[in-house]
Fold this protein.
Amino acid sequence: MTGFLKGSATAMITPFCEGGVALDSFREMIEYQIAGGTDAIVVLGTTGEPSVMTEAERDAAIACAVKTAAGRIAVIVGAGSNCTATAVEHAKRAETLGADGILAVTPYYNKCTKRGVVEYYRTVCAAVRIPVIAYNVPSRTGFNLTPDAAAEIAEIPNLAGIKDACGNMEQTLDTARRIRGKCDLYSGEDALNLPILCAGGTALVSVLSNLAPRAVKELTERVFAGDLASANALADRLFPLAKACFAEVNPIPVKAGMNLLGFRAGVPRAPLTEIEPQNLAALKTAMQAFGLEVKA
């Protein structure tokens, strides 16, 4: 299917406190995204640290996002797993709690075959009525969704798009060619947002937009309007900030950045650690250079 998502989607961090998810802080962050023009939020994606959350915490985060968004923007929920049955359970639970769509990362660690990944997406998609986005991020999963496999899953009726973070533009272009008209292509890597949009991508799923939602949304608008000179100029300004956001493994820097903006983002859960002092200083400098108001 095509047309589910156009524009910018933010891969939300999950703010933690001693009692679990800091829901008041999460609501403030969602409102910041809505005010910044973001088209959708992705809850419990990689940036949201779902692998270190309990089922009760997952439910609380989803319910909070759905209630806060209140139909103003789409809520997409991460539900992938290296266990197909678990992915199905998470997808069905997200749908029950009111999610507008599902983000399902490819199975990780198991390193399944092409046949296995196709069956995985067929099973997850069949379990829900809402759109499903496949997520290819081999640097984390150890599995690469090839253009050939992408073309096959693109035929699934409610497979809405492929979030691409393979880091290989040749592969991305081949994927775009094979899925065009069947499902949509989304950028899953902030450093490649501009070229993926120019290759026909319809949306960005961005970590950077936690900090700068309006600018990331504007990047999509400039490309869609055909104003590539202006889009390039904005991408040039965003690049140092994006680089600072990935100075350490995501979401360590972006959580620190949200704290610098004055949000109560907390710190990542173990085994992730707090940002190193030199990277925090560089992030603060990049944020200020971009024009963000650093409060902490």
About this structure: The mean pLDDT is 97. Strands lie at 7-11, 16-17, 20-21, 40-43, 74-78, 101-105, 132-136, 159-164, 184-187, 203-206.
